[in-house]
Amino acid sequence: MPTKKPKPIVEYRNYYLPSSFPVLLLTGDNWKISDVRSEHLHFHNCLEVGICHTDSGTLEFCSAMTIPFSAGDVTCIPRNIPHTTYSALYTKSRWSYLFFDPRLLFRDMLPPDFNYSMIYDDIHKYLIPAGSSRRIALLAEAAVEELSAMNPDHMLVRSYLYVLYMEIIRFQNPKTQNMQPEIPPPPEKFPYLSRNSLNITPALDFIEDNYMNKFPVDLLAELCHMSPTHFRRNFQSAMHMAPLTYLNTIRIMNACNLLRNTNHTILTISEMTGFSTLSNFNRHFNQMMKVSPKEYRHQTLKGRKPGEIPSIIEYAGWLEPDEAPYPGKQEKAPERI
């Protein structure tokens, strides 16, 4: 009797993007990718644009689908698409990564009905080979160079990323008119049902876009075309937490963002992040952050130097504060991303 192939382990990586400038750069000589293939796929809460500076290797997605990369290539992987990267044998390819949320970064530059959808059904659209689009490579490198400066011009970076995003969309599908209103595709062409995405991707996207609203968990199951019981089982398997726990994690993460970067009252922030009452907000915040919202705001603002913004790192379902050297850049790096 043939043995059943084990399911790949999928990890969720949450990158904190400050509301004041929702961009994160990971770059430097430490950002070299191992030649050892990881047994784990991972996915992010935002768009990932990568620049391969040296050597070559492989991008791997769900269902063991792979695509080779080499120096000069640019990758563009939408949020919630499981993947992993590893270098060719005996090499360590060096990369720079830009993480940003187009919905937040460009919200006052595009019409409300702008179609932010990326292409999900063809992994080859996730890689722009060197030489196939000179503008995409130049714009990505320009954004990395500016963000690496001691005093980066955020307006300039935003302009680079705006044009980069439009160029990537055009590269992925030259015939798509992305200025059209967002109209959901018919069920038989629903993009999230591709082999490249998780079966709970529609729920993850919905939570990230609607965490501030009230909605039943059963709606998430319906979006994923599952029964509530089957959905909860799949969600727990992929995220290692229940749907409601994940929703509250996203809400608290955004509340931390607002506490750090705005002067809104704690009551207003609780309402802006979807909590029904202030006591409910305080209880969940204390459970996750181990301090009250008031104390959290006090701690993060106390002794803060000009230009410094604290970051939030998720570990095992918890959010922990840390300090970034300066806006938009993070130095510490793992072996792979």
From TrEMBL:
<dbReference type="InterPro" id="IPR018060">
    <property type="entry name" value="HTH_AraC"/>
</dbReference>
<keyword id="KW-0238">DNA-binding</keyword>
<dbReference type="GO" id="GO:0003700">
    <property type="term" value="F:DNA-binding transcription factor activity"/>
</dbReference>
<dbReference type="Pfam" id="PF12833">
    <property type="entry name" value="HTH_18"/>
</dbReference>
<dbReference type="InterPro" id="IPR018062">
    <property type="entry name" value="HTH_AraC-typ_CS"/>
</dbReference>
<dbReference type="GO" id="GO:0043565">
    <property type="term" value="F:sequence-specific DNA binding"/>
</dbReference>
<dbReference type="InterPro" id="IPR009057">
    <property type="entry name" value="Homeodomain-like_sf"/>
</dbReference>
<feature type="domain" description="HTH araC/xylS-type">
    <location>
        <begin position="201"/>
        <end position="299"/>
    </location>
</feature>
<keyword id="KW-0805">Transcription regulation</keyword>
<protein>
    <submittedName>
        <fullName>Melibiose operon regulatory protein</fullName>
    </submittedName>
</protein>
<dbReference type="InterPro" id="IPR037923">
    <property type="entry name" value="HTH-like"/>
</dbReference>
<keyword id="KW-0804">Transcription</keyword>
